[in-house]
DNA sequence: GGATAATAGGTGCATATACGCCTAATGCAA
DNA sequence: TTGCATTAGGCGTATATGCACCTATTATCC
């Protein structure tokens, strides 16, 4: 009877990806009126909080691949929400900063985000949500390593 | 002192998305030798377990948008791992099924997946992982609703 | 049975994600 | 100071994700 086959619900990766899609669609529906996606909101919010940062620094904070963040900056820079400059102390680096327009957009988006958070807490439970965030924070800081190359 | 500004780590959406990226990269590194991404592996594994299903049915199971699954089928169909046919009882529907080549690829990928699961449990803790999966299953089945339209 | 509503997917568009390879700039050592 | 390793990003490519809008097909109601 399917001995050895993985049972539904046993895959850590599928479990978290399904949940991420579920939650993302919910937050996106709240943020939609602002014209920001959740990823864009995250970038703006973290950058605003951290202050000017390089691509590598911000990418690490967001657990984003460096090149992914680089591309995600495209729409934000195009719309004048994030400024990208060259670090004078290291001209290899790009310094990112939230523009005034970006800050205004962020303020508006934070209102929607607060609504989403409240709705989430009501549906899922505030304490459960806090516990889940804590667990996920531990997970993100857990070094899972990578697959060993198939060397002999 | 930043009163009212969301503190880092308070956003449910960012927390789960960061964790999803972290875990996805880990599982992808294990599955890479098979030529399958985690999403493709999920599709094959679920379809194999559920048996032939329509796009809508499989998409709901995977918490994927219908159109997203439709596009994700492209590479799988191109590589002959999934067969897409028309349901004779309802010619609007497409019936998906794992091909023989798909089943073989899946068997190979399951070995890598098992390694990844073992590594995950070792690093994060087996009981903690099981508890997290359970929590995420509850979350996925929690109706978060959607933002109310800005009606009058 | 024919008009109409509802459903299953497809397509255009835009963003999200990351690997591999490349160039530019910096750091370091002989 | 020059030569090489290291580091910061960019770019090509491919897949992932979902909304708005569209067609085809089926169900329903008079």
Can you summarize this structure?
2 copies of one chain form a homodimer. Chain A is mainly alpha-helical. Chain A has helices at residues 12-31, 38-50, 55-61, 66-78, 100-124, 126-140, and strands at residues 53-54, 82-86, 94-98.
- Provide the low-confidence segments of chain A as ranges: none
Shape of chain A, please? Answer: globular
The interface involving the most residues is between: A-B, 65 and 65 residues
**Radius of gyration of chain A, taken over Cα atoms and rounded to an integer in Å:** 19 Å
By CATH's scheme, which homologous superfamily of chain A applies?
Answer: Winged helix-like DNA-binding domain superfamily/Winged helix DNA-binding domain
**Order of strands across the main sheet of chain A:** 1-3-2
Distance between the termini of chain A: 34 Å
Oligomer kind: homodimer
CATH class of chain A: Mainly Alpha
Number of strands of chain A: 3
């Amino acid at each position: 009877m399917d001995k050895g086959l993985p049972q539904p619900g046993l895959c850590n990766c599928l479990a978290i990806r399904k949940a991420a899609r579920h939650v993302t669609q919910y937050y996106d529906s709240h943020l939609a009126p602002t014209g920001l996606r959740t990823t864009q909101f995250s970038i703006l919010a973290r950058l605003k909080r951290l202050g000017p940062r390089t691509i590598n620094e911000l990418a690490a904070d967001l657990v984003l691949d460096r090149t992914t963040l680089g591309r995600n900056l495209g729409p934000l820079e195009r719309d004048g929400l994030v400024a990208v400059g060259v670090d004078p102390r290291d001209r290899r680096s790009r310094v990112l900063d939230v523009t005034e327009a970006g800050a205004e957009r962020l303020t508006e988006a934070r209102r929607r985000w607060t609504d989403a958070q409240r709705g989430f807490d009501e549906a899922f439970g505030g304490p459960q949500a806090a516990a889940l965030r804590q667990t996920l924070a531990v997970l993100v800081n857990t070094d899972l390593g990578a697959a060993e190359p198939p060397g002999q």
